[in-house]
Amino acid sequence: MPAQTDVVIVGGGLAGLAAARRLHRAGTPWLLVEAAERLGGRVGTEAVDGYLIDRGFQVVNTGYPRLSALVDLTSLGLGYFTQGVLVRRGETLHRMVHPLRDPFGAARTVLTGLADAAGLGRLGNVPAGHDVDRVVGGRLADVRRISSVGRATDRLRLAALAARCASLPVDRLLAAPESSTETALRRAGLSDRIVEELLRPFLSGVFGERELHTSSHVFAMIVRSFARGRIGLPAGGIAALPEAVATPLPESLIALGVSATSLRPGLVRTSAGAVRCRAVLVATDPGTATALLPPLRRIRMQSLTTYYHSTAEPPLAEPILLLDGDRRELVANTVVVSHAAPTYAPAGRHLVATSVAGPMVPPEPVVRAELARLYGRPVDDWEHLTTVPVPEALPAAPAPQGRLRKPVALGEGIFVAGDHRASPSVQGALASGWRAAGAINGYLRG
Ligand SMILES: Cc1cc2nc3c(=O)[nH]c(=O)nc-3n(C[C@H](O)[C@H](O)[C@H](O)COP(=O)(O)OP(=O)(O)OC[C@H]3O[C@@H](n4cnc5c(N)ncnc54)[C@H](O)[C@@H]3O)c2cc1C
Question: Is the pTM above the cut of 0.70?
Fold first, then answer.
């Protein structure tokens, strides 16, 4: 490891890697030290007995602009999830189509609104435990099967909200008055029913919290990326994402298994010796960032836990997120991930990922009982592969978050990046690293 360079990057998660890409492109000498023996930080995959077990259920969203700028997404061999979700309510499953991406979805949403208004709403929902598409086929059935998720006006308002987030310039979206997501949903006129049966379970899996305290600006950007992109999984597991960001970087400039222990302007002390530098970028997890940089305030973290099960008989025939509309407040979502990416399970088996938001890690049998209810079929023969709790999954991002661009330059050549400087997401981590590297290049040349 060199004893001197221009920039030391501490942390090889997505933020540190994005920063390295920009410094490298500009010809700025740099060195990245990463405490773990692998790159990727919170984005990782373990191969176990023919299954790909991600470090918690997380997805690639092709609508993230910084991601598609840094990675050729076609190289990831993405397998996609169905656009839209299923919602369990009592004895029936309801399909909520994606309001913008399904060419017929918006029209069906409107038609369903009309059907509801005419009192035709509650027909033809999908019986529990059946393959949705085999049970309900054809256009009319499509109209009926989304009929019971919220009211007609809810679905129209939701479609309008998605269209607004997808089409307005980011600056205008982030100039809007800010509140908690919960308040923003109520202000948008959405009913208690659609919030509780659809939005709260869905967003709890995205934010890692059920209260929807997360800023409405973060919410708007999440809606924007879901509306503009698709979600999927790389054939090689989610770890293929940081690997792809790192691909153009020379391995000789990346020191794995090396921890930064302390720093001051012009010097970083590590477990492998001290490195002199002109600038240092702390791109660690938020907890380590506040330990290394005392001026930073402590950042509260949200937790997510994923339960992985294997089954020979998949409970659904398509890769679609299933939400709990029964307000049981335990499971955020569950999905047959191997339907999206068959490489996630060995031949003849299927991998089901089930996410729980919040610090509690319910015992597996409790989650299994919920899965039987949600899928509407016995799951006693499912094999519990593992439970992956990530207590520090995402930084909390309550209002106000402003323009989602917290300062990255702390003075005297010290910089900070990570999802806690932008939005708690892959996009936020990449964008903050990219922005910090731009600031470093300016500092070094200035
Ligand atoms: C279960 C789960 C599900 C998620 N789902 C999604 C999703 O679906 N969509 C989405 O957009 N986002 C999702 N996220 C969030 C996303 O993964 C993170 O926002 C992003 O990966 C954060 O990247 P980062 O570079 O900021 O931090 P990190 O990934 O935490 O990287 C920091 C790096 O710094 C290293 N480090 C720490 N201390 C030191 C030290 N002293 N010296 C050297 N190195 C150090 C760490 O080892 C790590 O590699 C999810 C996260 C989790 C955990």
Answer: yes
